[in-house]
């Protein structure tokens, strides 16, 4: 694999603070490749919804979602996400809703994502009533979807691998941009440690591979290049 040129020769621990949903669905399946490249680095995942005080909590690397305007840390843009509608292959006996109208009339499992951008992209001028099962935990929502209990609007980063494995299906080609991109966040230090450098390099490479797998033509998405704050998109 290209993209990782340094090698850590002494045993060390890398603490990664990550959103639980992104850690479970995107990062965890890819970590074995990093561990094969860097067997001397023990990775400790620290699930967290809020941005940790990296220095105070001894966190080496954070993967966050937001506007990228946090103070006291170095932040590097990873990628923009988007939302799409998914279901289990066996949902409704395999008879899936086809049109946007049929989709919003189905049994929806709600998370914290708003359906309004997706409805606008689908040409629908109406609200989707939040009736039925709802959770602010995307892992619970996706498990309910896998069980065939309903459909859900989720971020592509959380469902891409499951779609590739055939566990979920995308019900419609309609997608909507997600307002908050993912960022790599590092403690504000004069010099980053080698373990942070190799993880950042590996993450950059795997994000680029992931984006290259996408064939959805979104103009917002770009390969990971770890843009420094002064260089990032002014719209963020």
From TrEMBL:
It comes from the Bacteria. Gene3D superfamilies: Periplasmic binding protein-like II (3.40.190.10). Residues 10-205 form the LysR substrate-binding domain. InterPro entries: LysR-type_TF_proteobact-type (IPR058163), LysR_subst-bd (IPR005119). Transmembrane segments: none annotated. One of its GO terms (biological process) is DNA-templated transcription. Pfam families: LysR_substrate. GO terms for molecular function: DNA-binding transcription factor activity; sequence-specific DNA binding. Residues 213-236 are annotated as: Disordered. Belongs to the LysR transcriptional regulatory family. This is LysR substrate-binding domain-containing protein. It comes from Pseudomonas juntendi. The lineage of its organism: Bacteria, Pseudomonadati, Pseudomonadota, Gammaproteobacteria, Pseudomonadales.
